[in-house]
Amino acid sequence: MRRKTRKIKVGNLYIGGDAPISIQGMAKVPTSNLNGLLSEFRKMLKEGAELIRVSITNEDEAKNIKILKEKFSVPIIADIHYDYRLAIYSIENGADKVRVNPGNIPKHGLREIVNMAKEREIPIRIGINSGSIKINGPLVKSMVETAKDTVKFFQDLNFHSIIISLKTPFVKETVECYRKISEIFDYPLHLGITEAGKGFLAEAKTIAGLGILLNEGIGDTIRVSLTESSVKEIRIGKAILQSLGIRRFEPEIISCPTCGRIQVDLNGVLRKVEKEIRKLAKENPEINKLKIAVMGCPVNGPGEAKHADIGIAGGKKKFVIFRKGKIIGSYPEEIIVEKLIEEIKKILS
Prior knowledge:
single chain, alpha/beta, TIM Barrel, Sulfite Reductase Hemoprotein, domain 1, 2 domains, eight-stranded parallel sheet, five-stranded mixed sheet, elongated
C-alpha cells in the first residue's frame, strides 16, 4: 500500500496524496541556451515528462524561466545551488517550484527563499545529496539528520509546502534514507539515485533502488539520473512505474527468451508486432491496457502466457493465436502479425 503523504500543488500538477506518481525530467543543456532548451523540452514532453527541472547558475538563466512558462504548461522547477538569490530570481520569473541543496546554501539564504516561496505560494524541495553535506558518522544518519534539521527550520518559519529527497550513488544507503525519513515526515518524497553513471550498471542501480522503494509504497515523484539523454531517463522512469503495475503508459508486450525448441523467426515477428502496436496505439490509446504475448513455442504459450489478453505461440513455421489462454486460430508465420492485429482490433472495437 502506498504511504500516505500530503498533497502539494506544483504548477498544474499535484504531488503526493492520491495523485499519480509523477515523472520528472531534467534538462541537460545549459539554461542559457534557449533554443537548445526549447528543443529539449519538446522532446521530453513528447516522451512523457510531467515536470521539468532546469539548472539556474545566473540571473539571465532565471529570466529564461519566464520564456519557458510562456511556451509550455508543464511545471518548471529551478535547481539552485550556492547562491540563494538565484532562487529568488527564479521565483520572480515564474518557477513553479525550487529545489534547494541545504548542503551548500546557508540558513539565512534558505530563510529568504522560504519567505519568497510563501509569498508566491510555491513549494520547495529539500534536496539532500550525499556529496554536499557534512558527514558525521554513518552516511544514512548524516543524510537523515540533515533533512530533519532543514525541515524543522522550514517548519519554524511556518512553511509546509515541502518535498524531500535524499540521494546517494548507493542503492542500499539511498533506500535506507528514504525508509527512515518516510517514518518521520508525511511530506511527499522525490525519489532518485544520484550520480548513477552510464550504461547497464547505472540503469540497474536506478531500477533496483527506485523499484524497492516504490514496491514498499514509498515515493510520490521520481527522476532517473543517468549520464544519458533526458529522453532516455524519462523512458526508463515510465518503464519502472509500469513494471511495478503502478501506472500504464503503453501496451505490455511480453516475449519468451527463446531456446533450442524454437522453429520460427521470433525476433523478426516480435519486431513487426512492436511496430504495428506502436502505430495502433497512436490511433487507439485503449490498447495501452492490453498485455500481448509473443511466444516462440508451446511451452511458453499459450500455457505460461495464459494471463495475457491475447498472444501468439510458434510451432513449425506457423503460429497459433490465443486469447486468455484459449487457442482461437492457427496461421503461417508469414501472415501471423496481420492476423494478430486483426484480433486486437476486435478486442478494441
